[in-house]
Amino acid sequence: MISCQTELICLHCGDVTPHTIFYASLYIKRTMCNQCSFTLEKPVTKLMQQYVHNIPARAWSLTYRLKIEALSHPILFTLSLPKRVAHKPFELTREFVEVCL
Ligand SMILES: [Zn+2]
Fold it and tell me: What is the pLDDT of residues 38-92, one digit of tens each?
């Protein structure tokens, strides 16, 4: 799970404190105050709802990017396609597991 550090207002401390933000795929899953460990976590059902909602837009965007790449660099595109086709199901599965756990 990817995380990053930033400063936010802690609802428990009532002050600006360093926080760790944890991501599941592209979505913020949890924020934790580094000072008092107060944690806010998004429910899995909400994360899944966001993930599923964004899939059509992501598919459309991917299709568009692939089309541009195929037209501008057809040989490189063709050579990279088998690896990408094989890798995509694993990538989607990894994202879905991150969102669900
Ligand atoms: Zn705090």
Answer: 999 999 999 999 999 999 999 999 999 999 999 999 999 999 999 999 999 999 9
- Domain hosting residue 95, numbered range: 44-100
DSSP string, 4-56: EEEEEE-TTT-SEEEEEEEEETTEEEEEEETTT--EEE--HHHHHHHHHHHHH
* Ligand 1: centre distance to CA 16 (Å): 8
Prediction pTM value: 0.73
Distance 37 CA to ligand 1 centre (A): 6
Question: Ligand 1 centroid vs 5 CA: distance in angstroms?
Answer: 14
Number of domains forming the structure of the chain: 2
